[in-house]
């Protein structure tokens, strides 16, 4: 009886209205989405890891500039894909021609990439929240992880309960992150004009040119640029995507790259390389040196920035799960229909997995494994673009890039996947690889051959009843 009722509710609501995604995001909104997603915890956490990995200030600045270039070229390649396949969902929707690969992506996304992203950002929040209370020493890992867990749970509840609250947090955090980075950049410029250039003498001395070291440095740097493909998750909502998609990518990534370089120069102007590498909260160290007793402001601003980044990760994280459910690759529990329309099942699941990842994880290893997995699938996506350019030249392409661009970014992606395991192979990367491919073991029996369809149907309906959700229609 209850099963039939919930199925009837879903059918009745579907009959009453079929929602189409409206194209409401203009060029200013598009630039804001990209820049707002990219600027988060990374620029406040990664600089010390990039510097310690490559060994010299000059090399670290080169890494940051190259990361910006890779993000720019990758974004332009994705702009062509977004106009050839004008659907939301980014990598997942581009891979659906290969059903197994698409399932591997969504399997890895919900169990590795998204939880790793959430956990890494939560650890950033925790570091900056506790930093003022442990000035001059490293905060206890247990305290950091407890604060990180609390931030994950609080934001998960907010995003499950109210879209309005989540949006308000995003606005406040965006203001905080822009003001914080502008203050750091401006402070660095002032210090440079005052003649504080001693840290740039012999700036390439001690550079570590090991393949693995360079790969890990790129992982840490590209973590700060993650979000360059944001618009491809909402292509169906973008006005004139053939024009605004590449234009927004060019504007946003150029601005972010310039800002990141200025901020890193400011860090190196104020702090010695040794101070930068040993700082657990680099913005706080910068604030204490430049602002004195007001240095705690940087801790608050950095924590708010990371808090907003985590909120945005939760806010947008349901999209891939939502699209995968539409395509039949996940249980069809997509959106709450009572009181608030939020993707609560995806948020609850992400929260549980993220808390499990948090227990053994540390920031550097989490970022490395996230980047390894992400660039594996970026490489597959770019290979798909090359296939379309060579084998399907007749497809309409409102925007196109020279074939050399996807080739260059594909080479970079392959390097980023292989580099960490060439010089210094670690067993953890093998575990991550095996886990990604284990998705095939689930896809073949349950998705392809549809074993136990009755059990899956009952599970779907039970979850719909328990979570008060209903399946969503495909909106094109």
Automatic annotation (TrEMBL):
<feature type="transmembrane region" description="Helical">
    <location>
        <begin position="339"/>
        <end position="359"/>
    </location>
</feature>
<feature type="transmembrane region" description="Helical">
    <location>
        <begin position="249"/>
        <end position="270"/>
    </location>
</feature>
<feature type="transmembrane region" description="Helical">
    <location>
        <begin position="365"/>
        <end position="388"/>
    </location>
</feature>
<dbReference type="Pfam" id="PF13520">
    <property type="entry name" value="AA_permease_2"/>
</dbReference>
<keyword id="KW-1003">Cell membrane</keyword>
<feature type="transmembrane region" description="Helical">
    <location>
        <begin position="294"/>
        <end position="318"/>
    </location>
</feature>
<keyword id="KW-0813">Transport</keyword>
<keyword id="KW-1015">Disulfide bond</keyword>
<keyword id="KW-0812">Transmembrane</keyword>
<dbReference type="InterPro" id="IPR050598">
    <property type="entry name" value="AminoAcid_Transporter"/>
</dbReference>
<keyword id="KW-0472">Membrane</keyword>
<dbReference type="InterPro" id="IPR002293">
    <property type="entry name" value="AA/rel_permease1"/>
</dbReference>
<feature type="transmembrane region" description="Helical">
    <location>
        <begin position="100"/>
        <end position="122"/>
    </location>
</feature>
<protein>
    <recommendedName>
        <fullName>b(0,+)-type amino acid transporter 1</fullName>
    </recommendedName>
</protein>
<comment type="similarity">
    <text>Belongs to the amino acid-polyamine-organocation (APC) superfamily.</text>
</comment>
<feature type="transmembrane region" description="Helical">
    <location>
        <begin position="428"/>
        <end position="449"/>
    </location>
</feature>
<feature type="transmembrane region" description="Helical">
    <location>
        <begin position="25"/>
        <end position="46"/>
    </location>
</feature>
<feature type="transmembrane region" description="Helical">
    <location>
        <begin position="178"/>
        <end position="197"/>
    </location>
</feature>
<dbReference type="GO" id="GO:0015179">
    <property type="term" value="F:L-amino acid transmembrane transporter activity"/>
</dbReference>
<keyword id="KW-1133">Transmembrane helix</keyword>
<feature type="transmembrane region" description="Helical">
    <location>
        <begin position="58"/>
        <end position="79"/>
    </location>
</feature>
<keyword id="KW-0597">Phosphoprotein</keyword>
<feature type="transmembrane region" description="Helical">
    <location>
        <begin position="400"/>
        <end position="422"/>
    </location>
</feature>
<feature type="transmembrane region" description="Helical">
    <location>
        <begin position="209"/>
        <end position="228"/>
    </location>
</feature>
<feature type="transmembrane region" description="Helical">
    <location>
        <begin position="142"/>
        <end position="166"/>
    </location>
</feature>
<dbReference type="GO" id="GO:0016324">
    <property type="term" value="C:apical plasma membrane"/>
</dbReference>
